Amino acid sequence: MSGSMKAAVIREFGGPSVLTIDSVPRPEPGEGEVLVKVHAAGINPIDYKTRLGTGINRAWKENRFPLILGWDISGVVVESRAPQYRPGDEVFALSRFPAVASAYAEYACVSAQDLAPKPRSLDHAHAAAVPLAALTAWQALFDTAALSAGQSVLIHAAAGGVGHLAVQLAKNVLARVVATASARNADFVVSLGADQFIDYSTSRFEDCMEPVDVVFHTIGAEHRPRSWSVVRKGGWLVAISGGLGEDEPAKYAAHGKFMTVRPNGAQLAQIGRLFDAGVLRVNIDRTYPFAEVAGAHEHVEGGHARGKVVISLEP
User: Fold this and answer.
1) Mind listing the pLDDT tens digit for each residue in 270-298?
2) Which CATH code fits 4-129+282-312?
3) Distance of CA 206 to CAs 111, 192, 226, 227, 244, Å?
4) Which of 180, 199, 209, 245 is the most buried (most CB within 10 A)?
5) Quick check: 229 and 210 in contact, CB under 8 A?
């Protein structure tokens, strides 16, 4: 399959206006890859940070403009060079992260290792909202901190994309969840299963809670000393913003790690099964048509989305 397709392209770093819808060559899948007709793409904070030039691009050896952003994909296989997928299969993925994945396009080539069957219970918009956020929460809570039944966890920004899935994943393994968010999200966060809700705008969380086994630090690095203060000795702090100092965990007699999510199709398939079992739900704050991708970026950049923001490429 060859020809052209529409994609949201940036030719320089900058504000949302640098995103333009252009016609570009349709990609060709390599060995072990599939070509996906993209029905929806999720937007994450790393997307707008990279658009600004302050995101994952800092790890790239070079910036190759024109650049197509996006890593969260849900769609249908149209061509496969991987034995586990066939044309017509509905799939979703966190694709290629932290390399360029070009998800904001009508078609995208995805490694079969990054793919999982789309949950039957989710439409494409909701499926596209899941991969980066859910895998971040999974890899932080379970792969890194080994959160388990009977333990306690503090989850910051619990109404956000990563946070609202982290609350549900933690509750699913029977952990006790303390969650921070703003007052307007209290009912939402409690509905996800949080055992204790703290309104960060009116209370200092460290004054309102007992020490916990795990802190999932999803907020600014400037707040990390406060998070460390509520980690039990021997417990864990997992951060996804701001690298940890070498001696930081030892200073608090605990374990700590700065974590960057990685694609993992097998884990994503497990997460998909939890959606189909009714254990997880993903909240979409708003879905934007493809032509309004710049507006979707503005929405996420505002910092107050409840759950996720998605662009739809369906007619």
Assistant:
1) 999 999 999 999 999 999 999 999 999 99
2) 3.90.180.10
3) 43, 22, 7, 7, 20
4) 180
5) no
